[in-house]
Amino acid sequence: MDGKLYKATSDITIGDAVASGTNCTPVNISEIYATIDNPTFTNSISLGRKADTTIGTNSVAIGSRTEASGESSFASGSSSIASGPQSKAEGYSAVASGSSSHAEGNGTIANGSNVHAEGKYNVE
After folding, report:
1. On the chain, which terminus has fewer CB atoms closer than 10 Å, C or N?
2. What's the pTM value of the predicted model, to 2 decimals?
């Protein structure tokens, strides 16, 4: 190959021989991946997001089995869920389901809008 990254313009099967100009167009890699000099992302960031879960628009999921399904939501830690729009869940099994809610700690739940729950097993 010529060392360039190519994007398929039609369905191809992995393993097919790809020749320049055959169902492929050259792609600038900085348009696809965040580079060190320009770490810009489009739509969402997933580092340990739970498989087969909804990915919220502009959401961030970091950790182990985290879910960020709300629009502009953020989940970090382990098994934390941010399902409300603009919600944030941090820690172990923290859940932020209300709009603009924030849950942090161990098993904390922020169900209501604009609420904050922290500590261990606290619910707001």
Report:
1. N
2. 0.71
